[in-house]
Amino acid sequence: MSDEQKNRKQEQLEKYSTNDKGHMTTNNGQKVSEDEFSLKAGERGPTLMEDFHFREKITHFDHERIPERAVHARGYSAHGEFQVYESLEEYTDADFLTNPSKTTPVFVRFSTVAGSKGSSETVRDVRGFATRFYTDTGNFDLVGNNIPVFFIQDAIKFPDLVHAVKPEPHNGIPQAASAHDTFWDFIANNQESAHMAMWAMSDRAIPRSFRMMEGFGVHTFRLVNAKGEAHFVKFHWKPVLGMHSLVWDEAQKLSGKDADFHRGDLYESIEMGNYPEYELGIQVIKEEDEFNFDFDLLDPTKVWPEEEVPVKIVGKMTLNRNVENVFAENEQVAFQPGNVVKGIDFTNDPLLQGRLFSYTDTQINRFGSTNFHEVPINKPVCPFHNNQRDGFMRQTINKGQVSYHKNSLADNQPEPAAKEEGGYVHYQERIDAHKVKARSESFKDHFSQATLFWNSMSDVEKDHITSAFSFELGKVQSESVQKQVVDMFANVSLDLAKSIADNIGVRAPQSGGSDVTKSSPALSMMNTHFKPDTRKVGVIVADGFKGEDLMTVINELKSQGVQPELISDKLGYRKANDGAEAQIDHTFLTSESVLFDALYLVGGDNESQAFSQSANYFLNEAFTHFKPIGATHSGVKWLENNKMIGKAGVVTGDHMKEFADDFAKAIAAHRHWDREIVFQQA
Fold it and tell me: Most-buried pick from 19, 36, 196, 627 (CB within 10 A)?
């Protein structure tokens, strides 16, 4: 073993070794003399219950799993930091939003919603986007999604929604999927869900990565400044890499090829130093303008169109550190919408109001205690003092005899803080109303914004939405439910409803449609950032490739932020025609075209028939997924054989630097949808 290999092995040992040094002990510190055999009555006798090390080890193992989350069970997390660009003191006195020189630690958990902890990550689903800010005045949890609206308007319906989308109780099928009867029966009979269903059927529900999706606070919050003046606000996370998605066939194949695709992408990106970045944006509306719009500001099934209420970019979040222990951090983190700091307050959004109770109640159920805030990942970075005591998992050792307020024995400590001392004061909203079980009339428009979303889509996006509806409803067994859903979405677009009906074989509605004509270009994913940064390119090479040319292209791509990875029929090294060697990262057996954003076909003089067959399989699959494809030298013949020369996103060339530049531009485009038009015409 070379010195370099020894050093690398030592680095790996240090990186992955436990933090515990010294002798093995029990949890109470007693050193352990034996960890291979339990205490027995003779070598072949029964195990003795007095073996305290055995009992502790087995008992701890038996209780290693806490109940998974009812929703958002499948998630992955990372640490990072946030910094505001300029003071927002006009709107809020939250310290982390008013001090541009301050860096605030953050912890972000991304997740799917419907699936269990062991489900695939590339299913069609909403993605959770929960951010904890560890501010100097306490934790602020922005617990949102990658879609800005929700299925329901009132939290009392949340159990119904989740029951409907989860596996059906009579057979436990399907896992992590909404393509079944009970979900669509719920949608058809709860028409406030129309807008969210449109988003869920769009490409937003199958993101390319956590790094390439937006995040939203969903609800309307309040920002309150030092003068006590309030503004309505919605929070947005804008990915610096832009918004990009998978295609449906690709997403399904990834579920089988790599169920951990999204978490793997996040983990590897951070390990490589390609830190995910998101800019924080806010939409702000003055209190006096609350009723000046054609939607209710408090309705969580509505967006504030960016053309009407612009998004002001105010700061940036960078995720720069992976979790050290998935269970201790990702599983034990306990987000709560009720975790706010001074300068941020709630509104009467009925979904938000219910979540303020539900999340705390859920965490108590998961942890079996109210003391989940004592777990390190949940602890604030500032001191905390109160009179809460005891209970399961209590770690704080409270000193003294006093645990109540008010008191004289401890000089009335801890005592509340005045507003001037940083004490939290709720916004004093005037309320004069009867106690009722009802919903505002202004919440009853369920279709206009669903039509706004449809109007805002490109033709390609509309085709994808239609196909998604057709797939989902095609899995529904009840023809009655299918028909109800088709009739419902005739209120959004009659053309959409007729197309779905034709695809699933039910009678098309003859009337319907909407008179909403306005659109919001910001809702289309075609209007996003397009850049090649961090894109993975599979480079297919065989023995006898042109070594100097390949290195020129690879170095040029790397200089533009692209990540080339070499694929061949065997691991090890492939030899170039000039004697140079290139190390192979993957084989055809251990990788798939769906794991890459683009393909670069190089080939070589010594290709076997099996090699060519595998390369052709990769090529054709990538082509049908509209991915950029580049080819030089021997690789060009595969394009010629498949009649792909000249097609959109297919790049060839003889001058390596020019080819690399053109290929990088094709990679930046993400997908080349013109191919889809060719297929449709065919």
Answer: 627
The reply to whether 44 and 146 lie within a common domain is no
Q: Please list, in sequence order, all residues whose beta carbon lies within 8 angstroms of the beta carbon of residue 299, skipping any fewer than 6 positions away.
A: 153, 349, 442, 443
Residue 677: phi, psi to the nearest 5? -65, -40
For the stretch 413-417, contacts whose Cβ atoms lie closer than 8 Å and that sit 24 or more positions apart, written own/partner, are 413/385, 414/385, 414/386, 414/387
Selecting among 53, 79, 139, 145, the annotated active-site residue is: 145
Q: For 301-333, what is each residue's pLDDT tens digit?
A: 999 999 999 999 999 999 999 999 999 999 999
Q: Are 342 and 227 in contact, with CB atoms under 8 Å apart? A: no
Q: Note the pLDDT of residue 224.
A: 97
Task: List the Cα angle 231/234/236 in 5-degree steps.
Answer: 140
Active-site residue, 219 included = no
Give the mean model confidence (pLDDT) for residues 661-682: 82
Position 425 scores a pLDDT of 85
Q: Are residues 195 and 245 in the same domain?
A: yes
Res 644: pLDDT = 95
The reply to whether 618 and 551 lie within a common domain is: yes
Active site residue 72: yes
Say which amino acid occupies 473: L
DSSP label at residue 342? T
Q: 327 in a domain, yes or no?
A: yes
Claim to verify: residue 566 and residue 474 sit in the same structural domain = no
pTM reported for the whole predicted model = 0.92
* Cα angle: 186, vertex 191, 192; to 5 degrees: 110
d(CA 627, CA 667): 8
Residue 511 neighbours by CB under 8 Å, 6+ apart: 490, 494
Supply the range of the domain harboring residue 209. Answer: 75-378
Look up the CATH number of the domain holding residue 510.
Answer: 1.20.1370.20
> Do both 216 and 169 map to the same domain?
yes
Q: What is the pLDDT of residue 6?
A: 64
Does residue 33 fall inside a structural domain? yes
Determine the Cα–Cα distance for residues 345 and 424; give it in Å rounded to an integer.
Answer: 10
Report the percent of the chain where pLDDT is more than 90. 78
- Indicate the number of domains in the chain: 4
Clarify whether residues 500 and 623 are in a common domain: no
Cis amide linkage into residue 414, ω under 30° from 0: yes
Q: What's the CA gap between 504 and 509, in Å, rounded?
A: 13
CA angle 349, 353, 355 (to 5 degrees): 120
Q: Is the dihedral of CA 591, 593, 594, 596 positive or negative?
A: positive
Q: Say if residue 100 is in the same domain as residue 226.
A: yes
Classified as helix, coil or strand, 384 is coil
Q: Is residue 428 part of a domain?
A: no
Q: Are residues 148 and 15 in the same domain?
A: no
What tokens were used for 498? 């007729």
Say which CATH number the domain at 311 has: 2.40.180.10
